[in-house]
Amino acid sequence: MCIFVHVRLVPGVPPGLEKVKEVAKNIAAVCVESRYIDPVGSSATKPSENSASPCTQTVDDYVNKFQHAIMSLTYRWAKGEKFADVLSGTSIYEGTVIRCLRRLEELMRQMACASKSIGNPDLEKKFLEGIKKIRRGIVFSSSLYL
């Protein structure tokens, strides 16, 4: 899920990203076929009868918006590594990683609520377990100016 909250381009493709892109292409294709105006925008609503505007994004545009730069860092953080170890060997700023992890935690909380709302307690439990794994250490300190 961290590909939804990070926006920086990094060369190279980590393992597993191709599968994510394949699934994203399928989702985007359904959005385009359903005549959604903007498959990734804030308002994924069907155009009104009076509106003649075509889809504003192609399937490839949608898929290329997924950024993988923080995927491995997030995985290592969730596995319990220290923050300094997670950042070693990367050029991403500490503040960027902290901001992305906090946004990811918020997204996962919303997904847990959505899972509960649709009556899927197993999925809700998985999101809550994921939150427990990333919500630790300096990343979630109340103040970073201690």
UniProtKB/TrEMBL annotation:
Pfam families: DSHCT (PF08148)
Domain ATP-dependent RNA helicase Ski2/MTR4 C-terminal intervals: 17-146
Xref: SMART domains: DSHCT
Protein name, per record: Putative Superkiller viralicidic activity 2 family 2
